[in-house]
Amino acid sequence: MTRQEHLAEDLTQEAFLKAWAGLPKLAAEMTFRVWLFRIARNEFLAFARSPRTAIREELPDVPDQTPGPPQRLEEQEARNALRAAIEKLPETYRDAYLLWTHERLPYMEIADILDVTEETARWRVCEARQRLAAALRRFLGEQLR
Amino acid sequence: MICTTAEPWLLAARSPDELPGEIRRHLPRCSHCATLFAQLRRVDEATTRLTPIASNSARSRLDAALAHTPQERPGASQPHQKYRLSVRVVVALAAALLVAGGWVVGRVTSSRPVAQIPSEQPKDQPKLLPKEQSPREQLRPVPLPPQVAQLPVAPLPAIAPGLVAKVARQAVNVATDPRPTSQLDALDRLAGEIRTDALERAVAGDLEPLPRLAVLHERILKLGVNRQLSRITGSSRQVVATRVADELNQSAEEIAAVASRLIPVAGELLRPLVASCREIGTAIRESQPLSVPAEWPTQATPLESLVAQTIRIGEATDPLARADESAVLAANLAHVVTVLSVAGLTDDAYRVGEAMDGVLEHGVADNLDRVTLADTMGKFRKEVTEVRERAGRATDVLERNLAKAPPAARVGLERALEAANPGRVKVTGKGWGKPAGTGPPWKKGDGEHPGKGMPPGWQKKP
Known about the structure:
The complex is a heterodimer. Chain A has 6 helices and no strands. Chain A is globular. Chain A has helices at about 5-20, 30-50, 75-90, 90-100, 105-115, 120-135. The longest helix of chain A has 18 residues, at about 5-20. Chain A folds into 2 domains: about 1-55, no CATH class; about 70-145, Arc Repressor Mutant, subunit A, CATH 1.10.10.10. By secondary structure, chain A is an all-alpha fold. By secondary structure, chain B is mainly α. Among the domains of chain B are: about 5-45, no CATH class; about 160-300; about 315-435. Helices cover about 65% and strands about 0% of the residues of chain B. Chain B has helices at about 5-10, 20-25, 30-50, 55-65, 85-110, 135-140, 160-175, 180-205, 210-230, 235-260, 265-285, 300-315, 320-340, 345-375, 380-405, 405-430, 440-445. The two termini of chain B are about 30 Å apart. The interface between A and B is large, with 64 and 66 residues.
């Protein structure tokens, strides 16, 4: 969401600190995971509403975890294209999609975190997937008729 | 099973396990759907691998910070509704301190004067979208590309879409209940929404809309709240006046307190809000006359149009006039729905669509029913028919826009149409028809599956 590694770490730290400080007041009916993600999202929104004084930087390349031959140029290009396509998504779609993929949250919890209906959360994820698949068709091999 | 039925399920599922049996069986028989599903899953997998790894020092910094962070005492009482503002402001102040620090550093280190942001682009200059500009470059006027012809809609509202949806909800309350006390309450809440939005923007550093919001706030209080108060008779008038005056003075103190802690330019832009709360609160308490507010702008934003029309409904006392003004408000809301949908703000478009439903049902239909019941001689039959037709025509624009809308705008328009349909049926006797093949399959319903919003057999809330 922030596209900046250090900023992401800072906001994550702030979110955890707020969660820690407010933990005794966590409502019984709310799951911890949803509550924590809500805090994190609010931290990001508070930051996003402030004027940006730093130029945005690209996310650094994730180093290849598996030992082996160097990355092929096409895989690198595909990764860059995916990153660009994710950045191009409307923020609301991107938030829902990243919660769905990275955190594997069910639609109900995504809806709680984003304060929308479950149906809306599902719509946003579907839209995001559709757009990303369209943007990356060239790298996905087989063509749809 | 046809592909158009299967596709929404494929878009919403992570793995074949999450698909209904019928669609799972369809996949091996259909190369199109199988390919689509495989591509979607590959994109998801690649996205998961994009996550950057946190630095080694992040965990140790967090541990150190946690060790010095006290926990709040449990069982703290919920803040009163009136003080909800203060709690949110405290959280936002933390971000404001970061902004203020960055702003000060920027001002001290800048060697060039800050350029003025032009209020309008010259009409004869070509326009290009800025790309990857620094904040300083963004302050200079940048030409934009020639506009591609699309739907004939106004530009995106200058004020936050969320605020428009909240204003629309209060407009429904004004249209629904003609009693002065009820209308006063709705207009008072509307003014409160404007104050809250202005305060959040000031804290966040979004300063440009503040002057216009402050003037709008003053108009709501003087032309809306105060006028409704003058229509209340008897002893309850003083009780209501005291309550409103107390709330306005409380708000003035809260806003002044926040303004004093912000960077000076932001604090200054909040002063008109403080002044109008104090002036109007005092005048209401002491039954003093109020000065006339500023004229409405000749080019109003959608938010200002909504507010003006809401105040007009409040001023109308007979049901036919209220129905007529409500029909105009419904037309305004239809316009806002289109703008929000084109901007991809689906949720806000839906909420405004819900407000349209309320205005059509309670503002238009209920008032026309009152007129018809009282009009035993049929003297106002023609006017009633005209208002019904006007309300219907004003909202037909949504259906026409849907037919021409780009794909990104269709979702918002469809959802708003659905939300507003019951009210439209009540006013005109006919609803909006959805073209075949649009919308997800689970919304159509065949009588054997659960209602809209949940695919059959989908995970349900506990």
